[in-house]
Amino acid sequence: MKRILSGVQPTGNLHLGNYLGAIRNWVALQRDYECFFMLADLHAITVPQEADKLRQHVRETAAAYIACGIDPEKSAIFPQSSISGHAELMWILSCHTPLGWLNRMTQFKEKAGKDKENAVLGLYSYPVLMAADIILYKATHVPVGHDQKQHVELTRDIAGAFNRYYKTEFFPLPEPVIMGEAARVMSLRDGKKKMSKSDESDYSRINLTDDADTIALKFRKAKSDMIEGISYDAEARPEVSNLLNLYASFRGITREQALAECEGKNNSAFKQMLTDVAVAHLSPITSKMRELLKETDYLDKVLARGVARAHAVADQTLKEVKELAGFLNLKH
Ligand code: TYM
Q1: Residue 72 lies in a domain
Q2: Is residue 299 domain-shared with residue 284, that is, in the same domain?
Q3: d(CA 64, CA 1)
Q4: Angle, alpha carbons 161-168-87 (nearest 5°)
Q5: Is the whole-model pTM more than 0.85?
Q6: Domain match, 70 and 111 both
Q7: Which of 154, 223, 229, 289 could form a disulfide with 67 if both were Cys (CB 3.0 to 4.6 A apart)?
Q8: Distance (Å) of CA 89 to CA 83, 199, 251, 315, 321
Q9: Each residue of 65-123: pLDDT tens digit?
Q10: Closest residue (by CA) to atom 6 of ligand 1?
Q11: DSSP letter string over 150-177?
Q12: Cα angle 177, 190, 197; round to 5
């Protein structure tokens, strides 16, 4: 059976990278796969969070999933922290993960920066939790943006190490699924940096909660260059190339087709074209999200149903893993 697990950290400021790089692809895939989409709140606390805000962001992210087109009748939507198996399996997997593998993870190096001595253990061991998230559901496919590819590859290595150790084929090796022209959405202020929730400048990203005027303003102010016309060259014209990828992604066309559509346009005319497609695409999502956020009871019911479905699969996997590991299964 083909099964998907993926998730977003509920840390607020859900942006175009999360949408075009991940959530939109989930929507397309949910027809053909059994899907588990979690709110990665255990991952969120690798950096400081306020409890009330985290709770609010979990609901907000769930609302975003549904507003973007995830069907809660079809796919399970649930908070990661509601299934204790994630943390339990992480411990077992961490006993099969050499430190050398974690030392290669580029995201830890970026996030910890120069002050590695003071970085918390959770930030370092986070990829092992991500591996547990995925293989707890025996997921075969993991749709993510490009920045998470290395973590999914590590998951394959960890699952392989577990299988070899216990001489079994218990865990399938999951495939990363990276789709479309927007797998790496870059900051609107610096085309060499990825668009991110934590960037201090709100002008660096389009949030899923931005209204039409804000989107227009952010694209107008987006960095571009002095070269005439629109062309694709990720090295020499990173900002314009990023905007072109966004345009292609919103229109659902290839980069070449996008180039043909904006031939002869100058930067500001192209930015207007991009604003028009972005607003047409995003405004129904934004208004649906606003409506859903008023319906806390509905959202909580969706999450409770998601938790029940996730439990059914996760508990079975964990039971079998504990048997393999040699833990007693006592009745209480
Ligand atoms: P997170 O919350 O950073 O991002 C959620 C999803 O959005 C994608 N993404 C982007 N795609 C393109 N361009 C960008 N600028 C951009 N920024 C973010 C990410 O690749 C991701 O798919 N560790 C994960 C959450 C997670 C997870 C998992 C994902 C926890 N466990 C298991 C898959 C499977 C994270 O921090 O994503």
Answers
A1: yes
A2: no
A3: 27
A4: 55
A5: yes
A6: yes
A7: 289
A8: 11, 32, 41, 11, 8
A9: 999 999 999 999 999 999 999 999 999 999 999 999 999 999 999 888 888 899 999 99
A10: 18
A11: HHHHHHHHHHHHHHHHTTS--S--PEEE
A12: 55
**Active centre residues (catalytic):** 111, 194, 197
Ligand 1 geometric centre to CA of 148 (Å):
6
Paired with 36 in beta bridges are 5, 76
35-44 tens-digit pLDDT: 999 999 999 9
Q: What is d(CA 285, CA 238) in angstroms, rounded to the nearest whole number?
A: 28
pLDDT tier at 263, thresholds 50, 70, 90: confident
Name residue, tokens 């069907």.
71
What's the CATH code of the domain at 143? 3.40.50.620
CA 9 to ligand 1 center in whole angstroms? 7
Handedness of CA 178, 181, 186, 191 (dihedral sign): positive
316: amino acid identity, one letter = Q
